Inverse folding.
């Protein structure tokens, strides 16, 4: 029997607010353990929560970017469960009335557009951080567990997709596109390595063509896009082999082991009834008016999909538009300014995503404060197009500009990189080259076209690479055709 994978992804986005979701404690990654806490985020008796307005605006922005409906009235709930890193023994979350619902995200997979439904995006608070000592950091064999509650109460947005994803590659594409949107909105630094963006995948299989969903398995501990793709791919194969052998899939939570490349059973998966949701009694319902939503909508930046569409409209191919869209905003601004200054979109994009990015990476530098601007890039491209510098010399000119030596023209002059294009000067060099290569005339007369390239090379050698190869070729063809 042929099986079809059915995948939904839950994404937790740690918001980049100044303070926590329900108290005034600072949000600070890397602070000394348990130094960013108070009675509210520690769940001490008598401490009452107060919602963070900036966090609410962030989730509205995320929902709008994901084409969601924004609820006019939204309610907080208590999600009850008992872990050591949850000091209140409940998490303030949302259940049946989230802030955002019924959206979608379009992703490109193998040249095709796939629309993934967004079921909901809701607010909740993060838990503390557990560090398991010994035995590879796993709780089952740890000698002790240390708890840090600095993260407890940090605002989270949980984005739940519908089970519309059909493969591991598609799951990765969805996660990458979602991360790029979150980062563009500026509501989170979206760093997977620091846990500010975390993925859980719900994976099941069903007979191909069947509409009934299979038993789902939740996978945790995927801290990179590569991990997500590998974990989903492994779980699809595991379930397929299990069912083909006559077994059955049980609903459970499984841990992804990056080193071994397998998932391990952690616990039986809870259902919503296990969490005993009820309305948070210390928080009144939120009323999100249309005016507030419109204010947030008006502040939305250009989103990645919109930017890629604009780039392709300027003549870039889809692949180049995707690469350029993924670089940071400083480099994209240089591209936009270069095009406005007259450079071709293709040339500006290729220089930025190729030579400029390579120069920065080689020196382990970021783009902030880079000494190249759009007009300078347009000037450099124009110098190449006009034959003032060769393509190889232009890379040296770029190095000088990025090193702070001045404009492209000034760098080219200082480093003696300007091409010789004067026809009288080049004509003399061509005559000298032909004089020491008399056989070239006979070879060309006999139809040997390759001799032209050889002679151009000799002229370039004689001029130490400074001759304009197009001008040299033209002069050579005139001489050889006499």
């Amino acid at each position: 029997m042929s099986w079809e994978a059915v995948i939904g992804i839950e994404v937790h986005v740690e918001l980049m607010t100044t303070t926590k979701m329900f108290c005034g404690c600072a949000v600070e990654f890397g602070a000394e353990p348990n130094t960013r806490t108070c009675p509210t985020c520690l769940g001490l008796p008598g401490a009452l929560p107060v919602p963070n307005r900036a966090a609410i605006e962030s989730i509205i922005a995320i929902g709008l970017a994901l084409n969601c409906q924004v609820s006019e009235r939204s309610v907080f709930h208590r999600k009850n469960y008992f872990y050591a890193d949850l000091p209140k023994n409940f998490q303030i979350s949302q259940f049946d009335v989230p802030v955002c619902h019924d959206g979608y995200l379009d992703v490109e997979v193998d040249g095709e557009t796939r629309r993934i439904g967004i079921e909901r995006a809701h607010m909740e608070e993060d838990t503390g951080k557990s560090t398991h000592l010994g035995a590879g950091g796993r709780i089952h064999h740890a000698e002790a567990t240390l708890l840090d509650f600095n993260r407890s109460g940090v605002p989270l947005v949980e984005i739940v997709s519908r089970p519309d994803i059909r493969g591991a590659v598609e799951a990765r594409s969805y996660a990458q596109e979602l991360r790029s949107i979150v980062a563009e909105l500026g509501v989170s630094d979206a760093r997977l390595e620091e846990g500010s963006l975390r993925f859980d995948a719900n994976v099941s299989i069903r007979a191909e063509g069947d509409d009934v969903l299979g038993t789902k398995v939740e996978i945790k501990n995927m801290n990179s896009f590569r991990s997500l793709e590998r974990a989903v791919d492994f779980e699809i194969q595991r379930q397929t082999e299990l069912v083909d052998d006559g077994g059955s899939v049980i609903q459970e939570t499984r841990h992804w082991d990056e080193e071994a490349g397998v998932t391990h059973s952690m616990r039986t998966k809870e259902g919503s009834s296990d969490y005993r949701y009820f309305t948070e009694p210390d928080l009144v319902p939120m009323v999100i008016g249309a005016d507030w939503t419109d204010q947030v909508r008006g502040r939305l930046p250009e989103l990645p999909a919109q930017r890629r569409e604009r780039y392709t409209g300027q003549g870039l191919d889809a692949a180049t538009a995707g690469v350029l869209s993924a670089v940071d905003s400083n480099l994209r601004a240089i591209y936009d300014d270069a095009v406005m200054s007259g450079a071709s979109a293709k040339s500006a994009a290729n220089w930025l995503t190729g030579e400029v990015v390579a120069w920065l990476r080689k020196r382990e530098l970021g783009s902030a404060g880079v000494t190249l601007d759009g007009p300078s890039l347009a000037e450099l491209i124009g110098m190449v197009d006009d034959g003032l510098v060769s393509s190889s010399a232009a890379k040296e000119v770029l190095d000088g500009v990025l090193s702070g030596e001045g404009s492209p023209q000034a760098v080219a002059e200082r480093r003696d990189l300007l091409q010789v294009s004067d026809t009288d000067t080049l004509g003399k060099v061509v005559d000298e080259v032909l004089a020491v290569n008399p056989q070239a005339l006979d070879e060309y007369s006999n139809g040997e076209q390759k001799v032209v390239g050889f002679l151009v090379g000799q002229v370039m050698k004689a001029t130490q690479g400074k001759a304009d190869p197009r001008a040299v070729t033209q002069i050579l063809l005139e001489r050889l055709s006499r």
